[in-house]
Amino acid sequence: MRLSTGEKIFNVVNITILSMVALTAIYPFIYVLASSLSAWQPVTAGAVFLWPLGEDFRLGVSLAAYERVFQRTDIWIGYANSIFYSVVGTAVNLAMTALAAYPLSKSRLRGRGIVTFMIAFTMWFAAGMIPFFLTLRGYGMLNTRTVLIFAFALAAFNIFILRTNFQNVPDSLEESAKIDGANDFTILTKLYLPLSLPALATIGLFYFVGRWNAFFWSMILLTDDALIPLPVILNHLLVQADWGGMDVDAPVRAETLIHSTIVVSILPIMMAFPVLQKYFTKGMMIGSVKG
After folding, report:
1. Domain residue ranges of the chain, discontinuous segments joined by +
2. Which end of the chain is more exposed for a tag (fewer CB within 10 A), N or C?
3. What is the pTM of this model?
């Protein structure tokens, strides 16, 4: 099929604009990575653009900044805490979301409209930061690992994505399972969840990214250094520049340390996204359109 002149012009303009947008989005990552692998002299002088440079401002790689970053025990502690909060928290999120979405997908649930409205209401209106903090303090959850896991166990938007996905499962499959003696819990775990892996992977990625990047509430709810996650550690290092007294003649400077720390902090997300990417688009489409 031959394209008309107008279609060819549109394709060229569209590809050009999208390429520029993609380059704008990708370049900051390239710059940060190149700066983290460069010596501090070209980074401080603003000479790094696309590739790492050595002390002589020529192409070269330096791992001194990464060595300095990994020498800090607080970064390892923050890493371990973030992994724990993200993995365990995401598992709790998925379990709670599935348990909420399954009954809401059934028309036989009495008061389903009221419950759905109450959940949707939280997407537009919230009690506020201070009442939420006072509630958690009243339950004695402050400065504990459980506060980050269970205080943020559900997201209304993700409940509706998974609920709509459950509604697309044919009723005949559930009826067949009930004839074989399966109860609702068995139907959910053995039937609905295996058929909803794309949607689960999608909302699981949402939850994991949110958990990994959690900074504000982690800073407010946790005060013990042994409990705080990596984003709070990064705040101390990057914003407050708490590097433990850097020497002027040191082989690394704060500029390269900042970039190397950023790269280290985003590695888990960069590794998780390609694995789940094949489910992402399919999960969003299934969970957003009722067939």
Report:
1. 72-242
2. N
3. 0.78
